[in-house]
Write a structure and sequence with these properties.
This protein has 64 residues and is mainly alpha-helical. The chain is built from three helices and no strands.
């Protein structure tokens, strides 16, 4: 999604993906569009479900 994010459509896309996975199991994963997968990731990240991974700049230098 390159357009500005809108909350309602993003949540609808994420819900659509979750419904497919819930209904069809592993097959549902293959039925999800890239927009639905991106929406699920956005919802998961913005909900605080997952902590962001540190970037290379934030990682401690182990002398390597």
């Amino acid at each position: 999604m390159t357009e500005r994010l809108n909350l309602a459509p993003t949540i609808r896309r994420a819900r659509s993906a979750i419904d497919k996975i819930d209904r069809y199991g592993h097959r549902g994963i293959t039925l999800c569009s890239m927009d639905e997968i991106e929406a699920m990731a956005i919802v998961a990240a913005t909900s605080g479900l997952m902590a962001p991974q540190p970037t290379l700049k934030e990682m401690p230098n182990d002398g390597v």
